[in-house]
Amino acid sequence: VALVIIDPLDSYLGKADSNVNEQVRQVLEPLVGLAERLDICVLGIKHLNKAIKTTPTALYRIGGSIAFVALPRTAHILGKDPDDKRRKLFAPVKVSHGRTPDALAYAVEVNDAGLPVIAWEAEAVEVDPDDVVAGTKGRTATAKDRAVEWLMAELSVGPVPSKDIAGKAAAVGIPVRTLARAKEDLGVVALQKRDGDRVVGWMVSLPAGGETP
What we know:
Blueprint: E1 3-6, H1 21-38, E2 41-44, H2 58-61, H3 67-70, E3 74-81, E4 84-95, E5 104-110, E6 116-120, E7 125-126, H4 129-134, E8 141-142, H5 143-155, E9 160-161, H6 162-171, H7 176-186, E10 189-195, E11 198-205
Parallel strand pairs: 1-2
Antiparallel strand pairs: 3-4, 4-5, 5-6, 7-8, 9-11, 10-11
Helix pairs in contact: 5-7
């Protein structure tokens, strides 16, 4: 066994009051010990409360005691994309063991057999989880969008050695593939840098006039 799913967590509480921190901890802390002892993942699922107007913050939309968020290493929100009702967003609210990643986007589609399947998008999405739970329009810039913006700024001064762009992109966390897609979107021009008959490198620049296609 590598994964244990409890859906919903409230059904696991027994007689414990889901709004009382101490009672929730008494029930959930043994699960933490179980996960550590057996080296497994315990995934708990909870519904959001209905207090949209009085509790717009995603962290406090997770119903019941704050222990439901405090005890897990990670907590995510699932909700509709405010800009596209067919699109769903999987957004991190809390990550205690590393850098908080961007959200993921998916849609429920139907395969050739007529069965529902989850179709994940390849690009990560930058979105505020508070916007997701509030149902308001927020930021949905993809990793490629951010790479395009960064690349435009870097090349606005004129041609830059390709290796310098690659090094800077890696330093700010832009993957090689995402950088390549950003170059394609901007129509970046690559020209050889020569020393006589010898190619000594490549220079990259925006299209003539700095205009994007």
